[in-house]
Design goal:
Layout: H1 2-12, H2 14-19, H3 26-46, H4 49-65, H5 70-88, H6 90-119, H7 126-135, H8 148-154, H9 160-164, H10 166-173, H11 190-193, H12 205-222, H13 234-249, H14 255-280, H15 282-286, H16 292-299, H17 303-312, E1 318-322, E2 334-337, H18 343-350, H19 355-364, E3 369-373, H20 374-384, H21 387-399, E4 401-407, E5 410-415
Parallel strand pairs: 1-2, 1-3
Antiparallel strand pairs: 3-5, 4-5
Helix pairs in contact: 1-13, 3-4, 3-5, 4-6, 5-6, 12-13, 19-21
Length: about 425
Amino acid sequence: MYALAGFFIYMTTPLVFNLARMAYIDHGAAFYSMLSFMAALRFRDEGSLKWLAVSAMAMGLGLGAKYNVLLSFFLIGLFITAVSYKDKGISEAIKKSAFFVAVALAVLSPWLIRNYAWTGSPFYPLFETAAASVARGEGLHVTGEMAPVGKRFILYGEGALDLIILPLRLFWEGADNSIQKFDGVLNPMFLAFIPLAFLRKEKDTKLLLAFSILFFALAAFTVDLVTMYLMPVIPVVIILVTLGIRNGFGSRLLKWPAVIIAVALVAFNVSYGFGLYKKTGAVNYFAGGMDREGYLKAALSDYNIISFGNGALPQDARVMLLFTGDKGYYWDREYIYGDRTGVFLNTIVKNSHDATSIAAGFRNYGATHLMVNEALFQKFANDNFTQKELEVLVSFLNTRLHALYSYRGYSLYEIRQ
């Protein structure tokens, strides 16, 4: 019964529920990461190489899904090393760890080969962004900009206490579409049940908690702390919450408070779900009130531009996405990530002396067209370019770009020769 309750809680958790409607791979990353973790526990209990192989293969698939699974790779690898060392010493620990890494990389190898063939770097863009952060003296992170903790301190004015309780704030401060608010919603009632998981002695509750805390800590220092990147650890958190509910319901003293909080937990999840579907118009879509194309145009502010481009642009067009969130799923034409932080645009403009050289700069990246979030583009330009550079950029916009379509703050342009 409690396993089914855990399944229901996981599937209705706002972050999980919201991501389920989007074309992201985070659910796959969470699945393979959790499968690898559970298989590693079976390896510890049975000592069978079969379970170690399953753990490694699942980890390879998880890494192929999304790079944030590297945090799970590191933690589960440490766990396997520690277990093997405890049982049979250093020699066995080295052998089992090497086996885990080798099998995981073998499963991951098709993605590594593809990356190398396309970009010249097997782990693109992790190596490049990590090396750049180290070179700037910011420590090891992969955001491509300022260090994640530094960003929260400088941009959002957060103090030492805010940063210390960051993992807890994720549960009650989360909001969709706000990087400052972690760009996703969890459930504050989770915090009430996690401590209750320790009312009874369970074999792995401390291990689950340690995995969760270490994953949160590593994520805080290496990536922008948005809840989407924490998906690999969310199943672990839900297990702790479910154990807490079971223990609370089984306690004579805490039973009724636990029941009340559990009802609040479910109500929070269900309320978010209904609100989300009402906001996105999904109810109307599922009721047959609109077709897929109509729903996407209503739900996604950039889809009208994409739909137009898919029908109007030549087959050999290459669209650079500027400040659009690097979302290319619905494009039927080849697209290029223009870097959501404006690195490409900044490099091109600062290395150009006139409109022709800016056009050549985009062409050198292979772009024939630009899809632009106009408000973010204008803000970035005003914040980062000198008056002379702005004049050159405006000249480029007026003379070398041909506006094809604009809608809801997005525009599609052709770069003239």
